[in-house]
Design goal:
Four Helix Bundle (Hemerythrin (Met), subunit A), mainly alpha, 2 domains
Length: about 260
Amino acid sequence: MKHKVVLFLCVTLLLLLAFGTSAVILKGYPANTGSVWTITYWYGLVDKFQTLFAGILAVAAALVTVYMSEHTERKNAERHNALMRVQTRADRLEIERLTVPQTENLLHAFEKFRAAVEVINSVDAKTAVLETDLAWPQIAVAQKQLSQAVQILTRPAWIAGEKHFDGALAHDVNQMKEVLPAADALLQIVRAGGRTILEVLSREAPSEMRILRPRKQLPSEEIARRTLSEDLPKMSTKCAELITHWENVANRLKKLGDDYR
């Protein structure tokens, strides 16, 4: 738009100059033998208004100079941006491989894990028998999502892209890696307790008592219930901590990908 305005002004000034010159040639200029008008009419007009014409030409030259300066700056900026794209291409490709499809995978696994944990947290250890059929299958779902998260965090594209993490993202990733094994262990213990209760109620031999902490001279069901009473709150706390870091990692990773596009 600026360029069009500049060109329009230049053309207008040139037309005005041409019009003034044509007027002198066609109509002439009143001669005055006692003054400077002793040459042709049009030359006399130019001689009379040479300052005005010089000013018009100076303004036109300034406008052209401004236009050329802006044009040069724009071209320089385009060359700079092109050079930067070439220089950062390797980093952008690394970040693209890092975020695609890892971001989507992490968010998908996170949503499933959070939903499963919400169901598990609804279990009351004192009345666990009533909720076992609903809650305990969700433990397997939660553990599957933890395995998926571990697999994502160990992919070659993830490892290669970790150097691009800022401090906050690197912190959340490290915290997530630390909390994952503890949350998985507690889920396994709670799952063993719930399964033991189900097996005792169905008069089956408990198959996962080895996972529970041994309590001598106590029935299997009582061991399972005490384990649930102690470890369900721990599991809830650890999973809540994991959910916080997991969500932060997914959101920060998405932002990293958006920044480099």
